[in-house]
Structures are given as structure tokens and as C-alpha cells.
Amino acid sequence: MEGIIEYLESIKFVHLFMSPTIIWQSLPLLWKGFQAAAALLIVGYLLSLPAGLTAAFMKMSKNPIVRIPATFYIDFIRGTPLLVQILVIYFGFPLLMPGWREFATGPIGQISVAGIDMSQFVRAIAALVINSGAYLAEIFRAGIQSISKGQLEAARSLGMTTMQAMAYVIIPQTVRRILPTMMSEFILLFKDTALFFAVGIFELTLQARTIQARTFNMSPYIGAAGFYLMLTLPLGRLVAYLEAKLAVSETGREPENRQERKRRKAARAKEASA
Amino acid sequence: MSKSSKWLALMVVFALSLSALALVGCGETEEPAEEPTEEPAEEPAAADWKLVTPGTLTAGGEATYPPFELINDAGESEGFDVDLGKEIAMELGLEYEFKHYNFDALIVGLQTGAEFDMITSAMTIKPERALEIDFSDPYFDAGQILAVRMSDAYVTLDDLAGKKIGVQSGTTGEAYTRENAPADVTVVPFENILQAFQALQNGDVDGVVNDLPISEAIAADPAREVKVVGDVMSSEQYGIGVNKENAALRDAINDALAKIKDDGRYDAMIEKWFAAE
Q1: Shortest CB distance from B104 goes to which of A104, A120, A213?
Q2: B47 — pLDDT class (breaks 50, 70, 90)
Q3: Looking at the 3D structure of chain B, how many domains does it have?
Q4: Chain B residues touching residue A105 (CB < 8 angstroms)
Q5: Which among A61, A76, A185, B182 could bridge A66 via Cys, Cβ 3.0 to 4.6 Å?
Q6: Shortest CB distance from A200 goes to which of B104, B189, B206?
């Protein structure tokens, strides 16, 4: 075993990018970073759902006073880089709030959430919710508008209010239809948490970066990449699976795979020759 | 054609001619480079050193470090290191170019041999760095100093036990803090030192460890509400980084440096960038 590691370290490329020794030593810190990134992701995403739903309904409103702010918010956020939004919110928020410094250095601001100080965590979550809310709003809107108008009219004719029709008829169908897209947004958001390295939040990328700066070696980044893949790969597969299921429920037909197609072709050929 | 569309057409024409002018302007600035420079290259060994761009001495540095290197309001790089680099380029009979680069990527950038020829970025000569790159003779004395919020009474690193200290990623300030601060201090690396000071102001960190001249310059701005405290914690010297495979360039830089120090140009630069002290 030691011989193998020694051999691997002697190859310059392997030593610089995937040194087993350095990756192994980085694991505890990378694991801490992974927990921080996951906490940001889960809290941020859960809070983005109501934010996105609210913005989606506001944007579909006929009343311009409600609709225009929502349109502006969605366009502005989706049209600007998340990194810029993070820098503005993270460094700008405290300037806006009187007494922020006392809060940040006080007992509540110092509470640790997955290794991140509360005062930092709330700003990071604010940035994530503001960003992801805009993307989710467009996903929700597209989903709701994809359900045919007749459904709403049918529900209304049964005596349901618009709210009831939304809650019991439209939204359940929407959720099924947009679930894969919502999960893709979840995956994207996870990768986006890496941007918090720029404001000194110890998520996965910043942990890797500090080790990299100490060792002049790129391997910690590859180790961090492994942690990202740990979540994104299975989730990506799940999205693909859900999409296939969705296709079945929408069209009522099983998507053909190659083997099946071959079998059918053979059957047809047999029929023709008979 | 309506009035508004006429205006639009006029504006388009105006914008196009502006960009054409800009293109011509670029062409003009390039031309003098081809003329022989007034000062003939003294070193006959000019061909010995390798340059990323022939005829140009390209310097790399992180331009967020006033007064050593910064981007001014006109979008140009300036500062002590930039002036020094220009003087060295002149001594070598070369054109000068400054490239902005993240500090903690400077060494790797230099090693690729494709980005810049030397590092002028207030970089401290350290044994770990000297393993990776060569350094010129030292050109500036600096040391680490602690900065804290005006309202706090911390003076030493030990006073900050259990607290957070902001540093710039990859600097000697980071290395010094990691080695010398109490074990329960969290060292928070930032992209540049100005963000570290912003975080200090906002209460995200409780101290910033950084090179004395820069911290003093930042603390001099009353809007920052920070102060430098205690003694200089280490003695350090800045050097110019050169690729290990480019010894001829390092020697030429050392000769130029000695000349610039001898004939008073160095003192003039100190006067220009550190007049307040």
C-alpha cells in the first residue's frame, strides 16, 4: 500500500492534482465544509420555495401594482451574477442595519450553524433565497400556466373558489410536472454555495482553498469536487429517472429502450415473413 | 423618418465612429513600441532571458493593495510596485506591462511561464516561496501588524483568543497568524485585504493581520473606524519573484534595482507613495 502511494506521488501530475496523501489529510476539513454547504443549501432552498411561489403568483396577477414589482425582481435577479448579489448583500446589509456590529459580535450572532456564525449564516441565506426565489418563481409560473385553462374552469363550475381550485386541482398537477426542474434548481443551488468562499464563509470551496494555499497543491480542490459529486451525481440520476416517469404519466406510454425496440423489430420481421 | 428614429440613427453613427477612433488610437499607441527605445539595452546578454511577450517586461500583481498596487479611477494600475517595475523595465530597455492576478495564484502563474515575467506584488521573501520561485534582492522592509475596531481594546494576538482574525488569502499575514495566534483563533482568508477590513468593520472578524504600510494607510481613513495596535510582529522584506528557469532575468533585475536605489529614484518613489508617514 505504502509503495503504491509512494509511486503515485512520484508522478508530477498525480502529485499536483490528486495526491492521495494531501486529499486524505484534507478530508476532516472538507467534511466540515460539506456540512456547512449542505446547511446553506437545505435552509436556503426550503425558504426559497414560499418566496418563489409568492413571486410566481404576483407575476401572474392582472393587477399591475402587484405584477410589476415581481417582474422587476425576477428579471433583475435572473439577469445578474449571483456573485455580485452575494457581495452586495453580504457586505451591504450590515451598513443598512443600525447596531449590526453589536449583533454580529454579540451572543446571538456568534451561534454556530454547521460551523458558520449566525450573523454570517443569515446573510448567506438571504442571498440564496433572493436568488433562488427568482428562478423558482419562473419554474412555478411556467408549470402553473402549462395546466390547461379548462381545468380551472371545470373546478370553478363545480363550485370551488379560485383558491380552492389552485390548491386542490392545479398545484398538485403542477408539482408533478415541475418536480424534475425543481430538483435541478436544487442541484444548481448546491454548486452555487461555492461562491460564498469570496466572503470568508467556510464552505467546501474555501476549506479546499485554505489547504491549497498552505500546500501549493491542487489536490484539495479535487477532494472538494468529490464531495460535490457525492450529492450532485445521485440527485442528477434521480432527476433523469423522474423525467422518464413523468413522460409515462403524461403520455401513458413507457419510453422505449433499445432492447425493447430490438425485440419489437424482431417481432415485426417475424410477422412479415410469416 | 420620425424625429426619434433620426436621433437613434445619429447616436448609432456616433457610437460607431467613437469605436473606430478607439481602434485607431490603439494602433497609435502600439507604434512607439516598434521604435528603438531611447536608452539602448546595456546588457549585451539581453537574449539570455526569456520574456512572455518579446520586448515587454510583464509584471504580475494583485492590484488591491494600496499603496503598492491598485487600480486608479481611470482604470489604470499604479502604485509603488508599478513605478518600480516601470523603472526596471526602462533599465532593461523594455516596455512595461502590469497584469492583475489573484495573490494566491501568483506563484503558479509565474511558474507556467506564460502569464508574466516577474511578480511585483508586495511579496515577502519566504523560504517556502523560495522553493518554488527565485527572488530578487529585497526592495522593501515590512512587518505584520494587528488592526482592530476603534471601539475594541485588543492589542496582541493573545487578546484575540477564541475570536476571528481576517487575513488576505495566501499572504504572509495569513501564514504568520496561523503560526502565532492562539490555537482557538479562527483565521478567515479573504480575496483581498480591503474585504478583510470591511469584514472587520462589520463585526465578522475581530482583527486583521497584514503588512504594516498597507494597514496604516487604510486605518488613516477615519470612515473605516479601525486602528493599528501593538508592535510590528515580524520583520519581513519584499522581493521581486522570478521564474527559477530565468536566472538571467533575475540577475538583470538585481542590477537594475541596485542602480535605482543608488541614483535616488527609489527614494523619490518612497516619497511619492508614503509621503504621509
Answers
A1: A213
A2: low
A3: 2
A4: 203, 206
A5: A61
A6: B189
